[in-house]
Amino acid sequence: MQKQFLLAGAIFGAVAVVLGAFGAHGLKAKITPDQLQVFETGVKYLFYHAIALLATGFLYQKLPHTTTLYAGYAFIGGIVLFSGSLFLLSNKDWLGIAGWRWLGPITPLGGVMFITGWLMLAYSIWKNG
Question: To bridge 81 with a disulfide, which of 23, 64, 73, 110 should be the other Cys (CB 3.0-4.6 Å)?
Fold first, then answer.
């Protein structure tokens, strides 16, 4: 599982750089400044948690316990739900998905997954480290 978290972290890191550049150069003329700020928040949290996945991959080598494993899964789920929903919400008019009202409640679920991942990682280090 260590390799999968390292690979996911590296890929998500690359995606964060691509989306950050796209937001700075490609979206500026297409969405409002408020929407761009929402998009940039998604990019920041994607980047933070790509790094967290890399750390989890390295920690899993030392702490190969289920809580470390679940922390990595929580980070991946949080990236998809939190950052993914912000990317869609910030571009909903441009993408023609303005009627997708269910996207708003998805964002906090991703945030809860991020918090859960950090707490599980802390518990794994405390209990097994």
Answer: 110
